[in-house]
Design brief:
Elements lengths: L7 H7 L12 E3 L6 H13 L7 H19 L2 E3 L9 H19 L7 H37 L3 H12 L15 H15 L5 H16 L16 H9 L14 H5 L4 H16 L10 E6 L12 E6 L2 H13 L1 H15 L1
Antiparallel strand pairs: 1-2, 3-4
């Protein structure tokens, strides 16, 4: 059995990074505006048609397709700043009334006096007044949050709130290392990140690789390979899912943590079956060995046109993260003893 855990070297070596200097506006799924109950019910319906009776790649694709189809109907996808924090149903009603009054005024020939003009002006004035009040209340709320963070000496929360409200995003350059077209810039970053993951000493690398292969050939776990044994339980998968943080970027498959956490509980059962099948076959889906590398500036005040001023952040598939978390919890004692033995040999 050979389990390929996602590693940065594989991503740098096999995938080309997309550097978006002047690309299209990035959209995100807005789960805070989603119809969660409908999404859960749709996933239940889609999951009922899934039979995990093929290879792990096809089974993985079935689960991903069901999650994407359900979110397409129930979760709005738009720019991050599309929805306002202070917006509510009252503002929506007032906006619609103002639009309808303005439309009626236009259809009546734009009269300069009378009831229709008065209704149009009043609707617009009420809408703008309530909108300003909502904006003011939101700003006061942010100020109160900053004040509370200072009183509690919680500097992490203070600066997180500050950056969320007042922080400006770093404007990425359109030219890096003298290159301006996106494919060439992506190749430059891919080469730099691949060089950073190469071994410092080839002889030492070969020695450690031989040592690992020797230990691996003699490794035998009694539970893995037994068809009647579930190494990873449903409760185990549910526990790992609960530790995922919301609002994180999706991996190469477009699945976010909310896709799994908001789905019908049957998703946990399907993931449990898939994970145990992966252990039994000794293989993970191909997409789990891929990821998206995002270049992030090391020094925002430095030279942003120098590719060496960037470090890579890898976005791995969420399902791959859950599987790795299950493995870490399952074999934590074994991994700890192996690390201790390796440290004692090298000391």
């Amino acid at each position: 059995m050979w389990i390929h855990i996602t590693d940065t070297y594989g991503l740098c070596k096999n995938n080309c990074t997309n550097f978006k200097g002047t690309g299209p506006k990035v959209t995100r799924l807005r789960w805070d505006k989603a119809d969660i109950s409908s999404y859960s019910e749709l996933t239940r319906i889609f999951f009922n048609d899934i039979r995990l009776d093929t290879d792990v790649d096809s089974d993985y694709d079935k689960i991903i397709a069901a999650l994407h189809n359900a979110s397409r109907f129930c979760v709005p996808k738009c720019k991050t700043s599309f929805f306002k924090h202070y917006w509510d149903d009252d503002l929506s009603d007032l906006k619609m009334k103002s639009i309808e009054a303005n439309r009626l005024w236009i259809e009546c020939g734009r009269p300069r006096s009378g009831y229709i003009l008065q209704e149009k002006c009043q609707s617009k004035a009420v809408y703008k007044r309530v909108l300003r009040n909502k904006q003011r209340e939101h700003d006061i709320g942010v100020s109160n949050d900053l004040h509370e963070c200072l009183l509690n000496k919680n500097m992490d929360s203070f600066w997180r709130t500050w950056r969320c409200k007042f922080g400006a995003k770093t404007a990425l350059p359109v030219c890096v290392d003298g290159v301006s077209d996106c494919p060439s810039i992506a190749q430059i970053f891919a080469s730099n990140f691949a060089d950073a993951c190469k071994p410092n000493s080839a002889s030492r690398f070969d020695c450690l690789k031989h040592e690992f292969e020797t230990v691996y050939d003699n490794y035998d776990h009694p539970n893995v390979g037994d068809v009647g044994t579930l190494v990873i339980s449903v409760e185990f998968v549910e526990k790992c899912l609960g530790t995922l943080k919301n609002g994180k970027a999706a991996g190469i498959d477009g699945i976010e943590a909310e896709h799994l956490k908001m789905a019908h509980p049957k998703s946990i059962v399907l993931l449990c079956i898939l994970f145990n099948k992966m252990l039994l076959c000794g293989k993970v889906p191909e997409v789990c060995c891929s990821g998206v590398i995002i270049p992030v500036p090391k020094d925002k005040s430095g030279d942003l046109t120098n590719s060496r001023n960037y470090r890579g952040i890898t976005l791995s598939p969420v399902i791959s993260k859950v599987f790795e978390m299950c493995l870490l919890d399952l074999y934590s004692e074994l991994l700890y003893s192996m690390i201790c033995n390796l440290a004692s040999k090298n000391s």
